[in-house]
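Hi R.,

Here are the chain sequences for the assembly we discussed:
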Amino acid sequence: MNNQMVANGAISGLVLAVLALSFSIVYIPCRVFHIALGGIFAMTPYVAMAVLGTGAPWWGAVLAALLAAVGVSLLCEAGNHRQLERRAASHGAHIIASLGVFILITQLTAVIWGNDTQVLRHGVDQTYRLGSLVVTRAQGMSAVVSLILLAAVYLWLRYSGVGLRFRALADNPTELALCGYNVNHYRLLAFAVSGALGGAAALLTAYDVGFDSHGGLHMLLLAVVAVIIGGRASFLGPVLGGLLLGILRAQVVWHFSARWQDVFVFLLLAAFLYVRPDGICGQPTRLEAEQH
Amino acid sequence: MIDDRDISTNPPPAAVKDAARGRVLMRARGLRKVFGGQVVLNGVAFDLHEGEVVLLRGPNGSGKTTLLNILTGNLVPDGGVIHLTVNGTLEDFTFPRCWWQNLNPFDHFLPERVAREGIGRSWQETRLFPSVSLIDNVFAAMPEQPGENPWNVLFRPHRVRAAEAAGREAAEVRLTELGLGGRDASSGDKVSLGQSKRVAIARAVQGGARILFLDEPLSGLDGTGIHSVVDLLRSLVRKHRITLVMIEHIWNVRHVAPLAHTVWDLHDGRLSIRRSPVTETVALPGEQDDLRIPDLFPDFRLARTIDLPRAARLDIYRRPGDAPATPVLQVEDLVVRRGRRLVIGENDSANGTRGLKLSIRAGDLAVLQAPNGWGKTTLLDALAGLIPAEHGSVSLCGRALTALPTWERFGQGLRYLRADSRGFPTLNVGESLRLAGRRAGEDLSLRSALSYGQLSGGQKRRVQIHALRHDRSCLFMLDEPFSALDKQTVAAAAEVIKTSFSADKRALLVALPASADAGLQT
Amino acid sequence: MSYALHLLIYLSMYVVLAQSLNLVVGYMGRLNLAHAGFVAVGAYAYALATVVLGWTFLPGLLLAVTLAVALSLLLSLPSWRFRGDFFIMITLVVQALLYGVIHNWTSPGADLGSLANLTNGPFGIAGIPKPAISGIQFDTIGRMAALSVALAGICTALTLRLTSSPWGRLLKCLRDDELALRGLGKDVRRLKVQAFAFCCGLAAVGGVIYASYVSYVDPTTASLDESILLLCMLCVGGMGNFRGPMAGALVLLLLPELLRMTPMPQAVAANVRLMAYGLLLIVIVHFRPQGLAGDYRLE
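And here is the predicted structure of the full complex:
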């Protein structure tokens, strides 16, 4: 039975990893704490639900929802962060403005679609047996889609020319500009990819367990904890952190109760902050006294 | 066991015996620091005596500031031992620490711990607290103030008030000593650079420092500023018997040399120590080599010299016989600020600020020589569009650059290699070159799969210079391209530069720190 | 009249909360989104002390403050190591943790206040008695207003004295340049612990005012929306001085009252109020980073 819990945890961890990666993909190159991503996470399933309501096919709804997520994410960069960046505003200014955008998106979602919990599928989900494991269709889909997305992002980063320049942006934006590349375009790209990944994670979660208009920040917080645990300077860290967190949360449910998941997440975070503050993949920073 | 290999055993001359005979305050053995495969410090050892005045020298990038950061607790060394006996009891700090030692947050060699032992420092940028007044800057540094304990603030207000009055008086006296008596209410970012440097030093002394590490205390100062800071240092040494360790750039060494008893030369990660009064500027081996542009480019001759404000100059070298050519870079009335401080341009009482003006023509090898802190990097950054100019115009090959972002300036033919460029640490060599539109491997004996972070400083420089090569380009700007490199690497880097920039339609602007003899000429 | 007194009680509570948050955000320069969590800690501690243990006002207040001060270590210890974005995220995690504990520490059937059911979960604790100090009952709204104004006055005087002392000067220096301050031998870790202790302890006082006035606490007191409201107060009013938080508390007290006068369906009123906060945050950051009356700019 514990194998089952590990499998459940790993699957939810994979979805969490997608969300964590979508956070990192903005944070590492742009140094922007994309809290508005929590709003995008909350909004996307509603868009899908609305489009499904018009009688559109499921792929049309998914496409529309992802486009909406990407569009909102791009707006965050163009309308908010780029303006602040131009005035060399502090990180605090970015984060507060992003928090404002997050509130705006979630409350707008709530005003339009209401505060109640919704579902994207009805009835009992189909289940499959894999050896001793039982996997529902929603879980299987989450696992497969997450793995495909993660693999696609890594292949893109590793082998494509755009991915190379994207990694260069993460390393050293100034040098990239001096190589003649338009940094603003690559920042937009970061927000677009982040919006798409965040939207996908939102749809997968919504399809599996349902959704409401104010769960976004909680998921984003989990994703950020995954980023801190995995290592905030690497694209691999969030995935490891997400998996670890997913499995831990499932174990807490199994051994204690679902209510205490957050407490254990906090304990794990505290342990990491104390013993390995730079995360699993992290390198210690240069100046002992100038850490962030 | 203490290893004395690196300590010079020359007997100190009589004049400095007094100072050198003081008890040992700080002792280091075998200090080691590696940054990304590059060994910066390799077995640094010294004894620092009470009342000693040390001049720490070394070529740019040799790790002087790294050593300072280690000794003041701001950077953890990879290995070695530090003994502290500043306040009487001996304390040992051994590196590297085991992981379980790191779990205890209290006994680290941390800045506040080191400072409480009586070791103070000044920073290259002054780092005054900008939002409190000058007097509070000095005042805040005083140790053991009763008012720093909230309990006293709330329940023993009389004691706090008495201590405040006394402390404020002491801080005022200190500021008056510095000639800043009337300006005590102004905040840290509103006084001149020289004044803020003096306040920063006074702040460290007020904090109870017995050893003071000074990182380029004279950089960026004009004549009067230099004299006031040197006067302050002299009074600290004579009146207060404070032990000083100074980093100073060769340009300014002659000002502080008369104070020094001891010279620490940092070269190739090692310290060699000479105990002798430094009466004249002795050139360091290695420090001069990288400045001999005519040796590196033998077919160029000095064509003309343009004097720039604040003791900087632009030497223009050309190939003899080259026809007079069209201007490549034209800068008119350029004014640049960092924060509120004017860096490029001069204050002119008549009509506000007067900007910088210069022009470089095709085929020119222009060498900008300016003292550290003059603003060379700021100027180049502004030309490349990395920081905005307040006003003025920049044009390249006849096209105005002023409104263009950095990447479009690249499109106009501007290439810029920054002095402190870390490159792209997580990419490999091939990817770095591919990013710059170059093919991996050509002319470079480096495997393209090699990770960039593992390269030595010289190899990184070669990759970076190589990556700059581009067909449609008209001006190359290199900021201190030879700093922190040894002789062979300098030659190799110069070779890459020569082959890259040989076409006659291009111009090259190299910024270098001013050499010592240039400083002596003024 | 009683509407004005009601507003006065809320104003004094907001003033306490804004001034206490200002210690950490405005003077020390650390953004903190866990403030409402500590308000709730204070409110719940007071509620349990009076309802379950039968304590009177002053011991209850003392218990609330002590508990909040002890829990402030949840913020101050991570602040030794983290700053900037990740510290804000840690405050968010602490906020979520406090909310989660308050929301979940319950089990059906167990007595309120027992180890199995400390907070009564989402139903909250009702029937908190009106405060009484040495025989004086604060049972009318006028007396309650007098009590809360007096408490607010004491707390404000306390923060004013602290911030104008050498201790407050150290806080500003820490905000300006932590590394330079450490280089002068100041124990910044102790300073952070003290600052967060005062910040959270005073937040608990605000929570006690709330609990004793409303006579009922539930987990929404600890919700993130409240923390955002408090941070919004500081951003709008300005921070790093005395008058900024005052202005912010006043503006954000009156803003919902003004919104209430517009014709708006009840169902979305709360959402629109929050939207207004979000919009205010964006506008302030972009167009007036120092707030209405602040010293310290977020830039």
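The radius of gyration of chain B is 25 Å. Residues 157-177 of chain B form the longest helix (21 residues).

Let me know if anything looks off.

Best,
T.
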